Amino acid sequence: MAIEHLLKESDPETHYAIFLDINMPIMNGWEFLDAIQLNSMESKTYVFMITSSCSSVDKAKSSQYPNVLKYFEKPITRQDILELKQMDFLKKEI
Predict the structure, then answer these.
(1) According to the model, what pLDDT value does residue 64 have?
(2) pTM, entire model
(3) Is residue 21 part of a domain?
(4) Which of 22, 38, 72, 85 has the greatest number of C-beta atoms within 10 Å?
């Protein structure tokens, strides 16, 4: 549904912050990121991976997507939230 929304409702001037888990039903996080790339939406999406996966392979894979700005392992901490508040991701060029 999120991909459909981005394709149908998105404005070229609007950017979207997406909190994404790797393990989701129907479409996993990697498939979602691939769909964003396939539809050339990387420049308008800022993705924050929030996952229970502590795999170094998953973390490395996430860094191959230019629109993934941060990889958080669950549980999210207060410090993680404060870090997000300090990020100036709207000015980051992808």
Answers:
(1) 95
(2) 0.83
(3) no
(4) 22
